[in-house]
Amino acid sequence: MGLIVRLVVFAILAYVVYAIYKEFAGNRGSRRCQKCEGNGFWRAARGEKQTCDVCKGAGRVPKY
Ligand SMILES: [Zn+2]
Fold first, then answer.
1. Which helix (H) or strand (E) holds 4?
2. Are 58 and 36 within 8 A, CB to CB?
3. Are 30 and 63 contacting, i.e. CB atoms less than 8 angstroms apart?
4. CA of 39 to the centre of ligand 1 (A)
5. Cα-based distances in Å from 8 to 13, 16, 20, 22
6. Spacing, Cα 45 to ligand 1 middle (Å)
7. Which of 20, 27, 28, 36 is 20–30 Å from 5 (CA)?
């Protein structure tokens, strides 16, 4: 394997580990809102932004 290929593979692995860690740390104390899937809002039928009434636009709700 060339050096560049190894660097790319390492970068991808590092990013995956970081993404998993971020998701894990983010779930501590709060969890993603089930209704809006963590966005805090959704698009209504006419295309307007509808703020989520479960998490009030935060995208996360406290863990029970
Ligand atoms: Zn929500």
1. helix 3-26
2. no
3. yes
4. 7
5. 9, 12, 18, 21
6. 17
7. 20
